[in-house]
Structure formats: C-alpha cells, structure tokens
Amino acid sequence: MLKEFYRQAHVAFLSRHIDLAMDGRTPTFELWFIGHKKLSAAYWTVGALFLLSAEERIPREALIEWVLQCQHESGGFGGDVRQDPHLLFTLSAVQILAMLDALHRVDRDHIARYVASLQRKDGSFCGDAWGEVDTRFSYAAALCLSILRGASEGSVAGGCAAPLATLPYVDVPAMVDFVMRCENFDGGFGLVPGAESHAGQIFCCVGTLALCGALHRLRDGGDALGLWLAARQMHSGGFNGRPDKLHDVCYSWWVFSALAMIGRTHWVDAAALEQFILSCQDELLLGAHPANGISDSAPGGIADRPGDQPDAFHTFFGITGLALMGKHGIGPIDPAYALPMSVVQRLRESNVQNKESD
Ligand code: GRG
Ligand code: ZN
C-alpha cells in the first residue's frame, strides 16, 4: 500500500526541536543528538517548517536574538552561545537569517571577511582556526558568500547560466580549481584530493561549482557523475552514500540534489525514492494505519532508515528530498542553496536592488 505523509506530526516534532535548540536545559535524547551543533539543528528545523508552510510555528524574534548571540567577535558564529566560531555554523546562521528575512540585523561585510580569512593559497578552505581542510568548507564558504552578496540571477538547477561568479574577498578561480582537484576517475568527488568519492562530498563539490558558475568543468559533461549517483539507488528505492553501504534518508538530499544540479534526476526512480522516505517516518503509533485517522498524532519525525529513531537531521533531509521531487505540496527548494526557492528569489531581488543603488 502506498504510504502517506504525516505533515502535522512532523510540524509538531520540529516545533519541539526549535525550543530544544534555543533552550537546551532539558536533558533529552534529542538534545544529546543535537549536542553542540545547535545552530545547524536550528537551520534543519526552521528550513523544514518553511518547506511545510508552517512558518507560524517559528518563534521568529527569539530565534533571531539567539542566533545573534552565537556570533563571535571575529565575525563567525559558534554552534551555540559562547562557543568557538566555525564556518559550518556561520553558514547555518546566515541561512536562518536569510529565511527569517533578518540579514539586515548583522554586519554582512564582517561575516564575509571572516569566511574569506579561512581560504588557503591553494584555493581550499579550513573550517576554523585549527586548519582542517574539507570540501564541505569550500561549499559552506561559497554558499555563505552567495547569500551575503544576494543570490545571483539565473537558476543553478540543471546547469548554470552565469559565468564564473564574483564572491566578495575570495579567489573564486582558485576555489574552483581546488574542488576540481578532488574529482575522481569515477566522476565523483571526495573530501580532499585523492579521497574516495562520497555522496555528501559530491553534493558539496557540485554545489560549489554551481554557485561559482563552473558546472561545465565536470568530467564527461557530468555523465560519469550522473552514472555514479544513479548507481546509489538501492532495491528499497533509497540511496546509499557510496558502494556497499546502507541506504539512508539523508542521501535523498545529497544524491538527488546533486542530480538536480546536473539536470539528471530522471536517471533515477523518484517514485521509489518517495516511498522509501515515507517508510522512514516515525510509526510508533501506527499499528493503526492512515485510514483510521490518527496518523498525524504520531510522535513525528523521520529516521535514517525504517524502524530507527527519528531525528531533526533526517527529518529535514527527508523533507528536502520530497521538496526536490515536488511531492505532497512541499517546497520548492533550490538544490544549490538548500533553501526554499522563495527565499532565494528574495535574495536575488535584493541583489538587483543593491546593484541599482551602486
Ligand atoms: C547547507 C545542506 C547544507 C549542508 C552544509 C555540512 C555540509 C554543508 C555538508 C555535509 C555533506 C556530507 C559529508 C554529508 C554526509 C553525511 C553523512 C551521512 C555522513 C556519514 O558518513 P559515513 O561514511 O556513512 O559514516 P556511510 O553512509 O558511508 O556509511
Ligand atoms: Zn544519514
């Protein structure tokens, strides 16, 4: 039987998580999972509530105040109040502020300089002052700066219209060259040059190329990558992140958004993927099935795979997967910005206005 999407239950689950992220004194399993990554957890929950058209459940002003308190004097943001800054949390902060239309509440130039300070001579990015390099950080930098500048014209989905993007303070050609050094013989990308292809890193590398207007640099015009990504679909309909690994809901985003950016979503079975995501919904109360009408009162949330404990991360990436497919009235979402299309559209308009006032 085809499964239903339990929207109300997920909205309730996500609302509980926003409160947890901002308060955090209640020692619960969910809080243990969120740990020090509260700002990113807030991005997942706010993003999911937006995509479910449940913005009214977001405590907007309290959330903005808390995000602002997470900023460090360097310009970067920590995962919570009084934590060291990191590029990934800085991205989450900027994404949350963009969704809440509150970017005017921060000094954007200060944040952009912090991001740029993490670029190294070879074009790569560190996540923080401790010097670890990872293609996740290239993407975080490209996206952060794209949002702070105001999104560029043209859609990145299915190929990028723009030539090499200009991003404030960073060396974009070097940034792209470093990402291309992480491309493998199989068409995929890894964490650093020579590292194994992994769907999460592929999303980051393809996202960086898309935001920088450099998707044309892909090997075989993207065919090798498309084949590698399509091979991630398993009999369950779900994707794994690399060969011989288990299926996992979050790859619905990492894999399908990369396919969307290179215009090849039709190379996989979207209906089977949808059913896999729905089968990962919390079903604690669902000895009863949807027909009896109590499905929306389940605890809510989506797990990594059927029968596992739901969490905010997989709830967000399950919902973003459905949003990419345009299912259940969710979305739409931009695959490179990982933000609702309406938010990216608003950023684009602000970019045009900024240019006119220059
Ligand atoms: C704004 C959407 C967005 C992202 C920000 C943090 C980040 C940038 C990207 C993370 C990309 C990534 C590496 C995702 C993979 C996450 C994951 C499921 C890791 C588990 O890896 P393994 O090797 O799991 O433990 P497998 O599935 O290979 O067993
Ligand atoms: Zn996962």
TrEMBL record:
Q: Which residues form the Prenyltransferase alpha-alpha toroid domain?
A: 5-338
Reaction(s) catalysed by this chain's protein: geranylgeranyl diphosphate + L-cysteinyl-[protein] = S-geranylgeranyl-L-cysteinyl-[protein] + diphosphate
Family annotation (InterPro entries): PGGT1B-like, Prenyltrans, Ptb1, Terpenoid_cyclase/PrenylTrfase
Superkingdom of origin: Eukaryota
One GO cellular component assignment for this chain's record is:
Rab-protein geranylgeranyltransferase complex
| Gene3D superfamilies the record matches | 1.50.10.20
Q: What is its EC number?
A: 2.5.1.60
The Swiss-Prot or TrEMBL record lists the needed cofactor(s) as: Zn(2+)
Give the note describing cofactor binding and stoichiometry: Binds 1 zinc ion per subunit.
Alphabetized GO MF terms: metal ion binding; Rab geranylgeranyltransferase activity
Q: Which family does it belong to?
A: Belongs to the protein prenyltransferase subunit beta family.
Protein's UniProt name: Geranylgeranyl transferase type-2 subunit beta
